Description:
Elongation Factor Tu (Ef-tu), domain 3, single chain, six-stranded antiparallel barrel, globular, alpha+beta
Amino acid sequence: xxxxxxxxxxxxxxxxxxxxxxxxxxxxxxxxxxxxxxxxxxxxxxxxxxxxxxxxxxxxxxxxxxxxxxxxxxxxxxxxxxxxxxxxxxxxxxxxxxxxxxxxxxxxxxxxxxxxxxxxxxxxxxxxxxxxxxxxxxxxxxxxxxxxxxxxxxxxxxxxxxxxxxxxxxxxxxxxxxxxxxxxxxxxxxxxxxxxxxx
Length: 199
């Protein structure tokens, strides 16, 4: 479990095909200092298990499901990546509850600069938009954000200067894809309502 508060920007060192999957090697900087094989790390929104450590580099194995549901298969050496270690039970929950289980991908539709802030609108699949609400929570590439508004095809978020400077969201260009995780509570309510309606 994670909070959606990015601890560090890592850098992809290598993306090596391992059919039917991929081995992703990340220079994780200080995140690697106390990492152990088997640890869960939220990697641009996706919970991955460390399988190898050498110095500041961590390796993860991505299976077909991960590659089909996330943007991670498109990463290449030199790309930045958001990193967050898993929560300890004594930690403060500064963002919102994030599982690292990506629900689907969105696409940046527009960026509007307002001083040092940027308002971004993302296109997303209808089932995910149905699990969002204004002032609710969403994780974009592992970053905990508050939804500003939701339309039938898009949702928007406002990015503060700190988020723009300390996460990959600051370098997004129109058309770029992102990993989305909707709020876990919203998911359970949506599932309960669907099951109640069908019965």
